[in-house]
Recover the amino acids of this structure.
């Protein structure tokens, strides 16, 4: 159900665990679906021996896509006007990610809600920080 | 100065939306169940908010897709198939720093989008962990088959001097 302006308060928030134990297979699945086959995200030998990372890590866009899942569950499918942010730390296999949207502003005339969007890992470290705006019902 | 660099045709297909939604772990039936979607507010299957990332499949020059008959960056007989690749500890990497979307209407199966990619701003800074950082913006305007602007995507990519890991 789309959000109703009348039900929203600035500062209200919604959180969801968007992945509990990120698997290498899901990262591979995202590589296949997105077409981004950067070996940093799927090739352990390349990531460790050539690029110097401790293991492979997830596409930033996988984290953003999973955050988008929380957002569309919250505001309704097809309701987003904008969605953006910064990738602040890498996401590794085994990570548990929680996405939170917090109401920043209600634009009553235009029936728009402005949200802060953050994704934390199991160590409460921010891995993604951004924003979204969405159309809401009166 | 903004210069148009490339134009990519992105056909939006139901099976691709299904696979993309599975990959991001989103079980919403709006992404695969046409009868359900027909009864919803949007009236049909639509694509998830970050779906245009998958335009990479349709970019003939996308650097991060193995090209038939060409050496690939990743491992095979050796840790990298590219002889020009710097060895461990010597080089940094291109990383996705930011992503921003503006949505003008939902994307639906049957849409045939044209992505017009152009370079945006470039700037540099000094990072504590990664050394010199070179940022650049890549802006993609997605037009429908009717010439309507349906989505704008803006990526910020950073090239680092050294590999970056958290702490």
């Amino acid at each position: 159900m789309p959000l109703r302006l009348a039900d929203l308060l600035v500062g209200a928030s919604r959180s969801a665990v968007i992945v509990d134990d990120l698997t290498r297979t899901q990262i591979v699945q995202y590589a296949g679906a997105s077409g981004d086959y950067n070996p940093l995200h799927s090739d352990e030998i390349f990531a460790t021996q050539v690029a110097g990372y401790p293991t492979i890590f997830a596409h930033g866009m996988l984290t953003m896509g999973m955050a988008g899942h929380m957002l569309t569950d919250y505001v309704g499918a097809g309701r987003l006007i904008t969605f953006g942010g910064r990738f602040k730390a890498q996401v590794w296999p085994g990570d548990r990610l929680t996405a939170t949207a917090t109401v920043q502003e209600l634009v009553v005339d235009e029936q728009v809600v402005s949200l802060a969007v953050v994704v934390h890992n199991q160590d409460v470290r921010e891995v993604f920080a951004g924003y979204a705006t969405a159309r809401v019902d009166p | 100065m903004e210069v148009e660099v490339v134009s990519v045709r992105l056909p939006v297909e139901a099976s691709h939306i299904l696979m993309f939604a599975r990959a991001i772990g989103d079980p919403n039936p709006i992404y695969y169940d046409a009868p359900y979607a027909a009864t919803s507010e949007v009236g049909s299957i639509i694509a998830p908010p970050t779906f245009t990332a998958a335009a990479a499949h349709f970019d003939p020059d996308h650097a991060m897709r193995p090209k038939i008959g060409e050496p690939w960056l990743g491992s095979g007989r050796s840790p990298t198939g590219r002889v020009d690749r710097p060895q461990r500890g010597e080089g940094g990497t291109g990383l996705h720093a930011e992503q921003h979307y503006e949505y003008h209407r939902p994307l639906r199966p049957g849409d045939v989008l044209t992505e017009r990619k152009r370079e945006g701003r470039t700037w540099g800074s000094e990072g504590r962990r990664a050394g010199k950082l070179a940022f650049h913006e890549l802006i993609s305007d997605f037009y429908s088959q009717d010439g309507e602007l349906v989505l704008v995507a803006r990526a910020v990519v950073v090239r680092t001097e050294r590999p970056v890991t958290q702490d």
The longest helix of chain B spans residues 14-23. The domain at 4-160 of chain B is CATH 3.10.129.10 (Thiol Ester Dehydrase; Chain A). Chain B has a mean pLDDT of 89.
